[in-house]
Amino acid sequence: MLHSCSDNNEVVNEEPTFKSNTSILYVNDYSLGNTSQEQMRKAVLELTDLSKIAFSNADVRNEVSQLIQNDFYKDHIVSLDDLLNPSTSLVYNYADVSENNKGKFKGFFDSYISNNENKTINLVHVKDSRLVGTEQYLETFFDYAHLTFYLPYDDDSNLDPIPMDSNPTLVPAVVEADEARGYEFNGEIYSEVTVDDGYSESRFTIIIQPSYDPCTSLGFPIAAIAAATEDLPVDCDRISSGGSSSNSGTGATTTTPNQYTGNCADVKPAGNYIRQVFVGRAKFRKQYDNYISFTGNGGGSEVRYCRVDSREAIDIDSLGSYNVNQWNLRENQYWSRKQIRRENVRAVNILWDNNWECEGEHEQLFVIYEEDNTGDLIIDQDISFDLADDTYAANIDITIQNRSKDQAVILRTREESEFFITNLLDNGSGCWDGDFSFSDRCWGINAGGTDVPYTMHHRWVPIQ
């Protein structure tokens, strides 16, 4: 699991800023280092043993519990680096940690390390020798990985909060599995138990694991992501069911037909418009990562929404075939284990195409996949582009390599006239309401019988 900072894709009470392809992505192209792998495994076990004693102290336990439940990260996680740097870690400024509890874990950790050097050799090595991930291409996962505390569930299936005022069950992530050995406190000692999603959903459970970066799979804090994605290609206009469009950038209001369906050329309103397409809502019915992972591939799912555009791949003045080896768009969204286990329908609201033009047969490839730091997923597909007057035709051969242990979740070729005619139709799976600008419609669910049903929204947007 590559943990990520706070998620802005949940439904909120105001119009979101829909982003185009502005994601910052490290290329997850690194291998597992045999030299440091065993040291990391022992360090996880040593931190587990230390935590068994540390969490018997109520102040230490309260500090970790308060931090791990915060919303600073996309999932419930706090790193060892956070806990050992209470005066500088940003999470302490964000989470509601009392001054009385602040630094309690660090005090215990430092004392334990100094009195148990022979029991913490690997833990100290990992803590002190971890490299800072400043290079785009990371060579060895375990040289860069943080040790982290991860809370997979904070409530049960009835949404009742899990009590966190007692010693947690501790699970050292030293294998790749959907269930593993954990240590449950019975009031006097820790006993071995088998732990999985069902167990964690009803009991206070913390997984101790290596992760590349507890902040985000991108390696950037919230403020950096916001700064890098603040520009939009056009204003995100509200379009109401009555057909009025309020331009948020200028304050001007324009009357539009607000027609969403029909043949591309037949429904375009008068004036200067572009037609935007969004990934609207989605639901995941399958966990794409293990419950625990020693290699950073456990917990929630790092989902990628991708596009290849046939028009963007070609040179209109040069006939022939074309090869494509990279995405025109790849946006990311993190899905927690809880969201997947509960089959939550979530807002995605990603701008998939800023302007799908009306140009003959204009195909695009839509792909959803779950990213890992190991494995090779090869997308091998053909799409085409033809002008309406048959004066130009091109075939595009797509071959894109991605890091994933799984096959593509969704792999679908869409053609523009087919898309806009069928996008609102009930394909046998019903429909989901849209958000904000799209709330006046119930959008047809695509891939309803698969592990990942989804909707796509589209709208006309006036440009100046």
Characterization of this structure:
Strands 11, 12, 13, 15, 16, 17 and 18 form a seven-stranded mixed beta sheet that branches. Strands 1-2-6-3 form a four-stranded mixed beta sheet. It folds into two domains: 183 residues, no CATH class; 231 residues, no CATH class. It is built from 13 helices and 21 strands. Strand 16 and strand 17 form a beta hairpin. The two termini are 44 Å apart. The chain has 464 residues and is α+β, with helices and mostly antiparallel strands. Helix 1 crosses helix 6. The N terminus is likely disordered.
Helix and strand topology:
Layout: H1 34-54, H2 58-68, E1 77-79, H3 80-84, H4 90-94, H5 104-115, H6 121-129, H7 141-144, E2 146-150, E3 169-172, E4 180-185, E5 190-195, H8 197-200, E6 205-211, H9 222-228, E7 238-239, E8 244-246, E9 253-255, H10 264-267, E10 273-283, E11 301-309, H11 310-313, E12 320-324, E13 329-335, H12 337-341, E14 345-353, E15 361-371, E16 377-386, E17 393-402, E18 410-415, H13 416-422, E19 431-433, E20 442-444, E21 454-462
Parallel strand pairs: 3-6, 12-17
Antiparallel strand pairs: 1-2, 2-6, 4-5, 7-8, 8-9, 10-14, 10-21, 11-13, 11-15, 15-16, 15-18, 16-17, 19-20
